[in-house]
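Worked problem 6 (solution included).
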Amino acid sequence: MPNSTLPFPEIPETQLTELVQQLLAIIDQQKKQIEELHEEIRRLKGHKGKPQLKPNRMDKETSGEEKGEGEETRKKGPQRAKTGQLKTVDEVIAPTELPADAREQGWRFRGYADYVVQERVIEAQAVRYRLEEWQGPDGQWLRAKLPVSINGHFGPELVSYVLYQYHHQLVTQPLLLEQLREWGIEISSGQLNRLLTEPAELFEQEKAQVLEVGRAVSNPLQTDDTGARHAGKNGYCTFIGNEFFSWFASTESKSRVNFLGLLRAEHKDSVLNAGALEYMAQHKLSQVKLRCLEEGKSFKDKAEWETYLKSVGINGPRHILIATEGALMGSLLAHGFRSTMGIVSDDAGQFNVFRHALCWIHAERNINKRVSFNDTHAKPIAWVRTQLWDLYADLKAFKTDPSLQHPAFQEEIRERFRELCRTRTNYQMLNGHLKRLLANEAELLRVLDDPTLPLHNNLSESDIREYVKRRKISGSTRSEAGRRCRDTFISLKKTCRKLHISFWHYLRDKVSRTHAIAPLGEAIRRAAAAANPSAATTAAGG
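Solution. The predicted structure is:
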């Protein structure tokens, strides 16, 4: 379909008012939407679409490692023997087709040449357990017990395979049911659903331990959220984690109350302590309302807390919200959560708690998305992006080079950042973004106070992409058990990968109850101790 859009006439700079620029931005957005519709029409007609180009990353802009022509862009891994670790089950001797008079002609046998073929035997098996039954003289019956690895009429190997295919390989339930039946497994759709949901009880406690230990032994935490429909209604899935663990939870809300509630892990109480009251004061809860709250009180659940708020006359929605957020933060602090914990996210307000740090990739992305209608716009956008990349490169160097971690360099970075953000160009929308960057100075430059903080939130986006893939394949969850099951296994799968634990071996170990693999909480603690022994010791002692 031809594009009939006419180019804009050159607009004099004196006529580029803020209103005109906003209208031009709207027109440009509509042009992009029209082009997307054209692409969809071409795709439906079977025409060849445009190539999908990967976006540039700021790290590539500042790495300084540009590959020359002809240079390899991928490092080769260490060479290893491909068949040296395989367990040989059968040996088959393949005879040579010799002439009838081979020996007379002088042929001599010189041994064998090994050729290893890997194979996987797939067959349905049924094991009959004959349980002895005894009856005593008083009529009491005794029956032999099944092995601890057996739980139901499907063996641990089959249950592990079903869980692996569904949660790791993203095979849908209908396809998995068809595959099992083609292999000769007698199973119904209801039985398959139970195999996918009932074993989750074995793993939910371990998922809770992953968050409990992960937040205790590591700093910072990175977080993000994405849409997660459930039972026909919109919902959200929140990710919390770092390089040692991943933890997912789906809820109906993505508010700050929800985020603080998730950080509490298994705790459900609300606490009024010094930290809670300080938070309420910082968020402008009136002194009259603050004096109504009694420091030192705790409430076992949400209902008890809401009853208390009514009893002291806190009824307004805004006052209830601030008081609830403060009480949740008080609960976190009461249960050992460090007030200095770094929380790294994009610019979503619900994550702005404790020592909040913003992602530089998201900040630069808003500048990069600005539309340049002429050269007078393109030049300041390019200049601002160059300055941001230079600052980003210096912050990367600051994180890794102890010689730069001194007050003079920190102040130099802050002054350069402020000077950039206070610059006024002839592009009003760009000026608005610079003003917003200045307002976020503390969060964007948080790394100057703590060099261990990451400069971007790519880890969260990468981990939560797993949930997005599952959502595209299977849609929304329908039962509460299904939602918990999805969150649990995604959390454990991602955590196993970060700890270099085979998810397949992990599933087999847990389902068969052999306990050869240590709990993930212990593995997280060991990984954090290996990465930063002093910090892990301090966290464990605190």
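Discussion: Residues 360-448 form one domain.
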